[in-house]
Amino acid sequence: MWSAIVVLSLVGCAVAGPPVTRSRKDIEGFRAYLERSRTDDGLRLESRMLLNPKASPWENSGKFQGDILLNDKQVELLMQQYAGVGARNAFIWPNTKWPRNTVVYEINNEFTQAQVQAIRASMAEIEEHTCIRFRRKTSFDRNYVLVTGRPDGCYATAGYWEDMGMHHTLNIGKANPGEGCFINAIIIHEWLHIIGFLHLHSTHDRDDYVRILWENMVPDGEYDFQKFDTDTVDNMDVPYEYASTMHYCRYGHTANGKPTMLPIYNDYGRMGQLDYVTEWDWLRVNRHYNCPGAWETPVHADELSQKRENDAALEKMSQRNVAEDLPQEEVLAADTPQDVEAEKVSVVEEARLDQ
To answer: Could you say which of 35, 125, 190, 350 is catalytic?
Structure first.
């Protein structure tokens, strides 16, 4: 339902569209869904991947929108918005950026040395590209992220909440580095939730770039595809981006193996990719945290949000996988020059956790 959203950054969140009258049954169903997303259903990630092998590990992690672990306040705010209680802009979150741009963390002692190195490498990459810094917890810290390795998936809390204490969670289901939740882009994806970002498909104008196929979703899957309006979504002047590390793939929450989301323009097989973090992903973070020079950095639509290293990463994607992921009948716009031009300005916007 969000993106901080990416990745949409969380200023606050309001479901797009006019107020809707919900029945008691609808409201109770939504609350039951939110509560289920916060509990351990006993399924390991491997079991969920067998049920939907086309989705990514984080999409299959059983939480809100796949991998967002909600706190009590977030649940109540989501319930108020869904039920139409109060003003349309009632779903406004307080400042959820980490103080002094510094994420305080502790890595649980259940990981192998190789796994710890993979976690630290993801943090180093974030520090290299942004003004975010990481600091190990001391005995004086009350608010920090506990990095755990439960086997139920890859997921995290979204943003900084002063009254949560250590209950900021980043879980990376244990696996060999480069596999499962220990793919580098997935670890960074979860850190971006911690930093304050949601998923890009929730932005207010996402319907200009993707088509949602509601009929192919699992029960309650529609809750994870709601979007937010312009009152609370800030794209930070960065275009919609299929290749963002915070974007769903085609098959999130599918009930029948068919796509639940398709790009309107040719995405060249990049939507939902797990190979790299884009330059525009980094720019969103830097603008969200007002990092030096971030707002002076020009955004050129023809960059297609590629990092300098992306060319090498894309070469790793076999033609077989691209053809499999991008069947001809799933491309909604013809591959013509005007469509390519339109895709160049397609952007994933972000819903900000806070200003």
So the answer is: 190
Q: How far apart are CA 157 and CA 193, in angstroms?
A: 6
CATH for the 200-344 domain, from 3.30.70.100, 3.40.640.10, 2.40.30.10, 3.40.390.10? 3.40.390.10
Residue-wise pLDDT for 286-337, tens only, equals: 999 999 999 998 887 655 434 334 444 444 443 334 333 333 333 333 333 3
- Token pair, residue 267, equals 């995405």
Instruction: Encode pLDDT of 168-213 as tens digits.
Output: 999 999 999 999 999 999 999 999 999 988 889 988 889 999 999 9
Topology of domain 42-71+92-195, CATH = Collagenase (Catalytic Domain) (3.40.390)
Residue 247, annotated as binding a ligand = no
- Confidence (pTM): 0.79
Amino acid at 15: V
The C-alpha atoms of residue 95 and residue 12 are separated, in whole angstroms, by: 9
193 assigned ligand-binding residue: yes
Site of tokens 């020079």: 293
190 catalytic? Reply is yes
